[in-house]
Amino acid sequence: MNAPKSPKTFHVKSYGCQMNVYDGERMAELLGAQGMTASDAATADLVVLNTCHIRERATEKVYSEIGRLKHREEAPAPMIAVAGCVAQAEGEEIARRTKIDVVVGPQAYHNLPELVSQAASGTLALDTDMPAIAKFGALPKRRKVSPSAFLTVQEGCDKFCTYCVVPYTRGAEISRPFATIVDEAKALVDAGAKEITLLGQNVNAWDDENGTGLHGLIVALDKIDGLKRIRYTTSHPNDMREGLIRAHAEVESLMPYLHLPVQAGSDRILKAMNRSHTRDSYLRILERVRAVRPDIALSGDFIVGFPGETDAEFEDTLSLIDEVRYAASFSFKYSPRPGTPAAEMTDGFVPAAVMDERLKRLQAAIARDQAAFNAATLGKTCEVLLERPGKLPGQLIGKSPWLQSVHLMTDAKIGDLVEVEIVRADPNSLAGVETAKAAA
Ligand code: 5AD
Ligand code: SF4
Predict the structure, then answer these.
(1) Number of domains in the chain
(2) Is ligand 2 within 6 A of the CB of residue 14?
(3) Which of 26, 44, 73, 270: CA 20 to 30 A from 364?
(4) Do 242 and 366 fall into the same domain?
(5) Three-state DSSP class for 374?
(6) pLDDT (tens digit per residue) in 73-83
């Protein structure tokens, strides 16, 4: 079936990381600025698949999604755009194997409207260029956002961990200029954001020509009237500088939460991963952070079953978890990514059943610590930023400073910051009772 010529409605479907969520929002804004209206995947004239390539079967997922769209029931097949990291890595190959209309990489999506009009003539429109940060200047102003908004400040990665595709799909580390970030943050606050999460593959490597560093940027954003909370993610241990650690003590709007991936607890595995930190240097960073901000919630990323990981080396990861007591974490089975050095490491391949078993044990340890962290907030009073409706009438769900979901019955509205006493702690969420309306 032929795709509609000039699409009037669109749907953006984002997979994977928060940076993709941000990119998806910006693509939707771009298409909206062209006069197109947002719709759903079942009926939209144009569907953008904003893909993630970080772990396996990403490409198969894209093919099955494309197949579903081509045979959808409620409307004829849409125009299909493949965006994101799969488009960057394998877009041309996908277009050779199946009919799609647009391929656009993560550094080129500011050209999406133009690519869509090109594709309307029936030929493939492809842009996988990686210009240095050009896209941000070409995006429309932020207009409508939720109380908690994302803002990408840094992109790309020069770290080349041996398992990871990001340096190949997102390109080299680049920081957006200070002034454009402050402008976008102000626009987000004007549009209703109370909290901004600064995003980057290595967000704590953000810097400018004056050596401002992420901590300097945070201090500047803290001065924006109406911006109540600042967060940042994802950080690399090697870029965790003193200024940023101190900011956790000194900047009130900087929330007590640090996501600092470690991946493994064994020095031999860390070396094979090219992580350029050791177990000890990582633990020392966390000690320094906890010294200035004792209540900080820590989270990490873990990979089990990296090539050659022995039982004893896996135990090192578990003992690191025992030592840190994370408040939350993300864990993955190692997945060989084409083109990465680790994909060539065929010695000591870890069998699937062993990987499953290791992941299960690791996740049980993480769940134990998350439940303990949540239980420790029982009876405490804290501010909650209300973000969305709950299941019950009159119930809203928000986030604590430590990024826990808090459910409460309230007359307040979405976007309000309310003071809440935590009255129930479950493994994955908390329940609270409003004590007083916190500072508006
Ligand atoms: N296999 C498994 N997990 C991976 N990650 C990145 N690449 C891979 C891979 N090839 C995980 C890391 C990273 C997170 C975003 O995804 O833990 O921190
Ligand atoms: Fe990938 Fe490592 Fe860069 Fe993170 S630091 S994006 S895991 S290469």
Answers:
(1) 3
(2) no
(3) 270
(4) yes
(5) helix
(6) 999 999 999 99
Ligand 2 centroid from CA 159, angstroms:
6
Position of tokens 């595709």? 165
User: Looking at ligand 1, which residue's alpha carbon is closest to its atom 7?
Assistant: 164
Q: What is the CATH number of the domain that holds 91?
A: 3.40.50.12160
Q: 198-255, pLDDT tens digit by residue?
A: 999 999 999 999 999 999 999 999 999 999 999 999 999 999 999 999 999 999 999 9
User: What confidence category does residue 133 fall into, taking pLDDT thresholds of 50, 70 and 90?
Assistant: low
Same domain, yes or no: 304 and 199: yes
Domain boundary among 97, 127, 157: 127
Asked whether residue 439 carries a pLDDT value surpassing 80, the answer given is no
Give a yes or no: residue 135 inside a domain: no
pTM: 0.90
Shared domain for 316 and 385, answered yes or no, is no
Same domain, 123 and 240: no
Give pLDDT tens digits for 160-173. Answer: 999 999 999 888 89
DSSP letters spanning 205-272: G---TT--HHHHHHHHHHTSTT--EEEEE---GGG--HHHHHHHHH-TTB-SEEE---B-S-HHHHHH
Residue 302 located in a structural domain:
yes
pLDDT of residue 132: 65
Residue with tokens 């929330």: 255
Pocket test of ligand 1: the residue of 303, 309, 320, 321 to mutate, having most ligand atoms within 8 Å of its CB, is 303
| pLDDT higher than threshold 70 for residue 25 | yes
Does any ligand 2 atom lie closer than 6 A to the CB of residue 166? yes
Output the residue whose Cα is nearest ligand 2's atom 2.
Answer: 161
Residue 386 sits in a domain whose CATH number is 2.40.50.140
- What would the 3-class secondary structure string for 164-223 be? CCHHHHCCCCEECCHHHHHHHHHHHHHCCCCEEEEECCCHHHCCCCCCCHHHHHHHHHHC
Mutate to test the pocket of ligand 2, among 20, 160, 262 (most ligand atoms within 8 A of CB): 160
CA of 232 to the centre of ligand 1 (A): 19
pLDDT tens per residue, range 136-161: 877 887 777 789 999 999 999 999 99
Among residues 99, 127, 155, the one where a domain terminates is: 127
Q: Are residues 213 and 251 located together in one domain of the fold?
A: yes
Where does residue 190 fall: left (phi above 0), alpha (psi -120 to 50 degrees), or beta otherwise? alpha
138 lies in some domain: no
Are 112 and 221 contained in the same domain? no
- 298: helix, coil or strand? strand
